[in-house]
Amino acid sequence: YFKAFTKQFTTGENYQAGADRELQTVRQMMIDFLQNHSQEVRPPACPPLDPVWSSDITSLFDKNSHHYTAIVFESNGSYVGREVILDLIQYENIVVRRALNSDKAFLEKLGVPSVPSCYLIQPNGSHGLISNLKPLRSFFSSYLKSLPGVRKKLLLPLQLPAQENKEEGTEIKVWKEFDKTKLYMADLESGLHFLLRVELATHKTLEGAELKTFKDFVTISAKV
After folding, report:
1. Biological process GO terms, please (predicted)?
2. Axis-axis angle for helices 80-87, 23-36 (nearest 10)
3. Given CB 3.0 to 4.6 Å as the disulfide criterion, which of 139, 185, 199, 215 pairs with 134?
């Protein structure tokens, strides 16, 4: 793990995700890394992941804004809110926050019967619980992305200044847009390298069905 804005040379910090090697375990560890970044060196693209309190939420109801505000109510140990916040980073016209269910009276006042639940404040000021949604990250994120006016942010082409040339002057080089319809040799080489040097290396021996699968894969790779 490499912290943002590290000024001194570092080879990074190694972390073990646990014996289970589950994707969810690794994802939660990465979320913890982001949240634990100190405010001074937090990456600018990273939204706040800390929970907001009832006093902060109440103030949102009084204002008309140009965007939606979604609040994921959850228990203290839940990661659903933070996952939804990160899912919606690339979308505009919506802000996602998370709140804990420790204030029972406040949840009762808003009509939040259980957690995790998603509460939506619309641009015109109307607000209410999103009903008929399964209490899962995928359902919350899909619903919020489908709201009218919520769309992916436009990413402008990255412009890098060319090296100065006193005779020809300076000019701006615009990066070529990535063509999703093409297959790049660099990706093929990277994929093969990872499969052979990393994934295969986790097996001390191959035999039986695993060995046959690997032989078949090598045969197909050689043919294509």
Report:
1. protein folding
2. 80
3. 139
Does residue 158 fall inside a structural domain? Answer: no
Q: What's the confidence (pLDDT) of residue 31?
A: 93
Q: Which candidate, 155, 133, 153, 135, places its Cα nearest to that of 143?
A: 133
pLDDT in tens, 142-160: 999 999 999 998 876 655 5
CATH number of the domain that 83 lies in? 3.40.30.10
**Could you tell me if 49 and 82 are in contact, meaning their C-beta atoms sit under 8 angstroms apart?**
yes
| Domain total in the chain | 1
Residue 160, in any domain of the structure: no
Tell which residue, 98, 86, 96, has the closest CA to residue 34. 86
**Blockwise average pLDDT, block size 10, the chain, 224 residues:** 84 79 87 83 83 87 84 96 96 95 91 95 92 92 95 72 54 74 85 87 89 93 88
Residue 76 is given by DSSP the state T
8 Å CB contact between 150 and 108 = no
Domain that holds residue 90: 23-152
- Residue 217, token pair as written in the block: 């894969």
For the record, the structure tokens of 59 come out as 């103030």
Q: How far is the CA of 61 from the CAs of 64, 69, 130, 194, 218, in angstroms?
A: 8, 10, 16, 50, 60
Q: Please indicate, yes or no, if residue 52 is contained in any of the structural domains.
A: yes
31-56 residue pLDDT tens: 998 888 876 777 777 888 999 999 88
* 222 belongs to a structural domain: no
